[in-house]
Amino acid sequence: MDYLSDERKKSDFDVEAMKVAWAGSIQEFQLSDRMAKLVANDPVFEKFTRPMLGRKELLKNTLRKSAHAWKLIIDLRLSEEEAKWLRLYVDEPAYTDLHWGMFIPAIEGQGTEEQKKKWLPLAKKMQIIGCYAQTELGHGSNVQGLETTATFDTRTDEFIMHSPTLTSSKWWPGGLGKLSTHAVVYARLIVGGQFHGVHGFIVQLRSLEDHSPLPGITVGDIGLKFGNGAYNTMDNGVLRFDHVRIPRNQMLMRVSQVTKEGKIMQSDVPRQLIYGTMVYVRQTIVADASKALSRAVCIATRYSAVRRQFGSRDGGPETQVIDYKTQQSRLFPLLASAYAFRFVSEWLKSLYLDVKQRLEANEFSTLPEAHACTAGLKSLTTTATADGIEECRKLCGGHGYLVSSGLPELFAVYIPACTYEGDNVVLMLQVARFLVKTVSELGHKKPVGTTAYMGRVASLMQKNSAVQTAEGWLNPGAVVEAFESRAARMAVRCAQELAKFGNPEEGFAELAVDLVEVAVSHCQLIVVTKFFEKLQQDIPGKGVKESLEVLCYVYALFLLHKHQGDFLATGYLTPKQASLANAQLRTLYSKVRPNAIALVDSFSYTDHYLGSILGRYDGNVYPKLYEAAWEDPLNDSDVIDGFHQYVQPILKQRLHSAKL
Ligand SMILES: CCCCCCCC/C=C\CCCCCCCC(=O)SCCNC(=O)CCNC(=O)[C@H](O)C(C)(C)COP(=O)(O)OP(=O)(O)OC[C@H]1O[C@@H](n2cnc3c(N)ncnc32)[C@H](O)[C@@H]1OP(=O)(O)O
Ligand SMILES: Cc1cc2nc3c(=O)[nH]c(=O)nc-3n(C[C@H](O)[C@H](O)[C@H](O)COP(=O)(O)OP(=O)(O)OC[C@H]3O[C@@H](n4cnc5c(N)ncnc54)[C@H](O)[C@@H]3O)c2cc1C
Questions:
Q1: DSSP string for 462-528
Q2: Which cofactor(s) does the record list (predicted)?
Q3: 242 found inside a domain
Q4: Percent of the residues in the chain that have a pLDDT greater than 70, as a whole number
Q5: Which ipTM did the prediction report?
Q6: Quick one: which of 21, 46, 78 has its CA closest to 606?
């Protein structure tokens, strides 16, 4: 029985067409759908018991799943794209993520042709397993502060990898602890006693025969992390070197080369390319944000339609909690954000592919913008998603706290995204630096791409909003101009404040909080703009574009309402105009309401992937919750182990003293 069928009948758009819009294309939809079903129908990928497993059992279970996934990739001759979808739907962090997601890209981006030829075939056949060993116990954000050394020895034509201090121990790399045979290790290059910057080195860590650590290498797991199951399926590791020697040609040498004689040669590739793998991964993290948020929203939306509380008259049905305006005002902006992040990630991927092509042709002019966009959008979307998942838990009331709701594990697995691949505040400060530079160059350099609006800064500083009515806000020009003006005015005001400092670095440090706010407003502008640009495209299917339009306005006007202080303080909006935007938002929520279930169905998630009783497609929540309780190991017997030893004596003593 489908308890949500009435809800499904209410929608006024073509759900199948929306699934295609969400996926990006019909081909992408079919591919994703095939992989989702393949995983959902395979018992090896069962995951309900995961949060109850002890660490060793948990990791072994992950290894079993990874091996099975690899066998499927080989046996079914899956393409790289199919393998990525397979990985997504298996839904279990594993050492393979870092192997495919960072080790291989690091060699591809920073290795010479010769190095790529040697290492990539081995890695792609998984004859070696690699990880990305950058962060240390003492430094993560400050990459130039890393302490591991790679000292060149001209006599033997080797680098000596060494961990000189406790804080130089590599700490955190995923896949390092127990599985990796190799790592790209970031270390201080020292030649002739001189420091020549941090570089990547391919280092073998374990024997390919018996997997034992090689001489001079100490390696292990760093211990349990937040939550049950969750990211504990990953062997984040610690690594120390005691004068470990590697051949010279294992330094990744696309950026700088060290010759046999100990000469440093700089290619015309900028030094920042050493950070290139992070640009790539940050871009994939934005796409992951839309997946994680849409999952949480799917659970909370379906459950909000099932759950009834208060409002019964004459014994009739109570009100579905999704009909409360407060529930809508918390849920629908998250639903809209999931779509907004999906579309901005699509755009970011195309920006990244363009930059990648240029980099391959040794054209580096667009790298700073790619860095600012990937860093900023990674920060913006992961912060909103982590907060959004927790909000979805609250939207599900008490049952959201049960592991069987799927939300606790989703939250636990997701929140480190705010930290890994760059702490979100540190990344926003990078965006701020880029914006300050853009503003300071306005006189002689025309801003392009995502900062093109800064070129119209004079008019953006003068013109105020012309919106007169709530309907007036349903106008892309009016909304985009509001976000542009706010970002430009905040940036200019900050630049003026900065100019008051004699030392720009001192000013930057002092004004960091304001600078982060400027960066956030710039990134929100990008997301809003890209959503409107998406709507300019041909989007087939009855009512699909109209529904997306509603979501786009919900996203933008929700942000405008949330940050109305900025819009008012910059003088672009009057309080009246801000309240008209809020009135429009209420109307938009009423438009979303009948389509809410169809909008989450359009994600096309299987019950396996959702992993949530509250988010079941059929809405059959209560019987399944009740059933699941009895599957808990505590309910294997009526009298629990430990009762006779620890509880009964207390009870007996009470009885005894009660008699007295
Ligand atoms: C077939 C199956 C496939 C399956 C696929 C599965 C996929 C799954 C994928 C993935 C799973 C994900 C699982 C999680 C993984 C987590 C991994 C990690 O966490 S790895 C560690 C990350 N570590 C950080 O991110 C450190 C953060 N710190 C930094 O990035 C930098 O140090 C930073 C940005 C803070 C800069 O530091 P400064 O201020 O000291 O600057 P200076 O290093 O001197 O560089 C200055 C110049 O370089 C530019 N710059 C900095 N970073 C750049 C970059 N990345 N690209 C380009 N330019 C950059 C700056 O804009 C600046 O430019 P101007 O001089 O102003 O022009
Ligand atoms: C689950 C997980 C997986 C990871 N996987 C890997 C991996 O595979 N490989 C790898 O190399 N690393 C990995 N990391 C490490 C990760 O990349 C770092 O933890 C991350 O870059 C943050 O650095 P940090 O820990 O040094 O934080 P810190 O920089 O010490 O941050 C602590 C606080 O200081 C603030 N702060 C720091 N610098 C500044 C500044 N300049 N201005 C203002 N505030 C500042 C931050 O905002 C934060 O609030 C992983 C981490 C986690 C949690």
A1: H------SSGGGS-HHHHHHHHHHHHHHHHHHHHHHHHT-SSHHHHHHHTHHHHHHHHHHHHHHHHH
A2: FAD
A3: yes
A4: 99
A5: 0.96
A6: 46
User: Does residue 254 belong to any structural domain of this protein?
Assistant: yes
In this structure, how many other beta carbons lie within 10 angstroms of the beta carbon of residue 624?
A: 15
421 given a catalytic annotation: yes
pLDDT tens-digit series, residues 160-190: 999 999 999 999 999 999 999 999 999 999 9
CATH of residue 149's domain is: 2.40.110.10
Cβ atoms of residues 133 and 239 within 8 Å: yes
**What is the mean predicted confidence (pLDDT) over 117-136?**
98
Q: Is 262 annotated as a binding residue?
A: no
Provide the phi-psi class of 75: left if phi over 0, else alpha when psi is between -120 and 50, else beta: alpha
Give CA separation, 19 vs 214, 380, 396, 602, in Å. Answer: 50, 25, 25, 5
Cα 139 to middle of ligand 2, angstroms: 8
Phi/psi at 159 (nearest 5 deg)? -100, 145
Residue 388: its pLDDT value, please?
98
| 174 ligand 2 Cβ < 6 A | yes
Rounded to 5 degrees, what are φ and ψ at 642?
105, -20
Beta-bridged to residue 200, according to DSSP, are 186
Mean pLDDT in residue range 83-95: 98
Provide, for the chain, the percentages of residues in helix, strand and coil under a 3-state DSSP scheme, each rounded to the nearest 5: 60, 10, 30
Confidence bin at 654 (pLDDT 50/70/90): low
Asked whether 321 and 304 are in contact (CB, 8 A), the reply is: yes
CA 83 to chain CA centroid, Å, is 19
pLDDT (tens digit per residue) in 583-636? 999 999 999 999 999 999 999 999 999 999 999 999 999 999 999 999 999 999
Residues 6+ apart with CB under 8 A from 392: 296, 297, 299, 300, 331, 334, 400, 407
The per-residue pLDDT for 658 is: 56
pLDDT, tens digit (0-9, with 9 covering 90-100), for 189-225 = 999 999 999 999 999 999 999 999 999 999 999 999 9
Are 140 and 91 contacting, i.e. CB atoms less than 8 angstroms apart?
A: no
Q: Which among 301, 294, 295 is positioned nearest to 619, based on CA atoms?
A: 301
Q: What's the CA gap between 470 and 583, in Å, rounded? A: 6
Predicted confidence at residue 313, as pLDDT, reads: 75
> Containing domain of residue 240, as a range?
101-267
In this structure, is residue 296 part of a structural domain? no
Q: How many domains does the chain have?
A: 1
Residue 367 Cβ inside 6 Å of ligand 1? The answer reads yes
DSSP 397: G
Listed range (95-99, 353-357, 645-649) with the worst mean pLDDT: 353-357
22 in a structural domain: no
The active-site residue, picked from 7, 108, 421, 481, is 421
CA dihedral 525, 527, 528, 532 (to 10 degrees): 130
Cβ neighbours, 10 Å, residue 260: 9
- Contact by Cβ (8 Å): 281, 201: no
Among 146, 420, 516, say which to mutate for ligand 2: greatest number of ligand atoms within 8 Å of CB.
420
Q: What is the DSSP letter of 214?
A: P
- Asked whether residue 653 carries a pLDDT value surpassing 90, the answer given is no
The amino acid at 548:
L
Q: Which ligand is nearest to the CA of 226?
A: 2
The predicted-structure confidence for 424-473, as pLDDT tens digits, reads as follows 999 999 999 999 999 999 999 999 999 999 999 999 999 999 999 999 99
pTM of the model: 0.97
**Of 541, 558, 450, nearest in space to 13 by CA:** 541
